[in-house]
Each structure stands twice: as structure tokens, then as C-alpha cells.
Amino acid sequence: MSMSALQPQIVKAMKPKHGKDWMLVRGDTVFVRFLAQNDDGNSFEVQTPTRPEERIRIGGGLTIGYKLPVNQKHLFSVAETLAQENHLQPENKVDRFQNNCISMFSITIDHGKTIQDEVNEEWVTRFFELFDAHGISTNIVEPGMVDIYSDLCVEDGEDVYLSDGMYMRPNGTIYER
After folding, report:
1. Exposure of 177 by Cβ count < 10 A (0-12 exposed, 13-18 middle, 19+ buried)?
2. Lowest mean pLDDT, pick from 2-16, 38-52, 145-159
């Protein structure tokens, strides 16, 4: 079974130990972490994972481990693109172990719903569309594209208009509006 044929799930993270963080996984890979922002467990920062989860309890004493995607650079590009498509500014962050991640946005779970319901949200579908398009999409950035963006940008962090409805993001990807 191919990775893209697997259904995404939201599972409880083992780290940190307070048990309020969650992960978006597909197969044996973790793609997104939901970091609890309050004690109620209904507000989360959505970011790329910074390290694998070695052991997750799944009942009956069984454990499963989740690895990071092989291509972290691609994962970061997908996270940045998803945030920007939603008119949000992704933020580069570093965890307490100096691992890099991209914070995409924050979410609040509506009353009567759970974090697991988030797996049905449009952004999750779009995240995997972008991730699975690797090798097919125009989101593949040549090394010099970020340099070209730097030469063209008027204001750092803002998309640059190129021509004929084409724009360039700060990460060097080009898209049409």
C-alpha cells in the first residue's frame, strides 16, 4: 500500500508527558503536531514535528513508533505553503532541543467536537495534497529561487507579483492567483 493511500489519523503524543498534545499521522509517519495552548485542551498551535515519537501506547501494552518524513525540507515547504494559502504568515521556530519547525497557525476546537474531528477539516486534505504532489507540483524550488525572490521583493515576507497573475512566495515557489 502506498503512503498516499493510507488515511490520516490524529493520535495522542507521548511527549511532553502532560498528555495534552496530539499528532497528525499517516501510516508510521508524523506530519503535524498539535501543541496544547491551554489547560482545557481545546486550543492548539499547529506546527511541523521536531522529532520522532519513539513509543505511543495504543492499548494492551502495545506500542508504536512514528518517524519524521524523510524529506524535512519538503515538509517545511508544504507547511509554509499551506499557511500562506490561508493568508497566514508561517513562523520558523526552534524547540527546546534546538530542532527547527514551522508553526503554521493556531486552532480552537469548537464545543462538542474533539481534536480527532480536525482530521476531517479542509486544511488536512490540502496538506496531504501538497505533500503528495512532491515531484509533480510547481512547488519544487530550485536552489536559486529564494535568491531571485530576495532580488525582487519590495517588502520581506510578502509575495512578489511576477507577471500575468503569477506570484512568488518568500520560499521561492511560484503560484497563480
Report:
1. exposed
2. 2-16
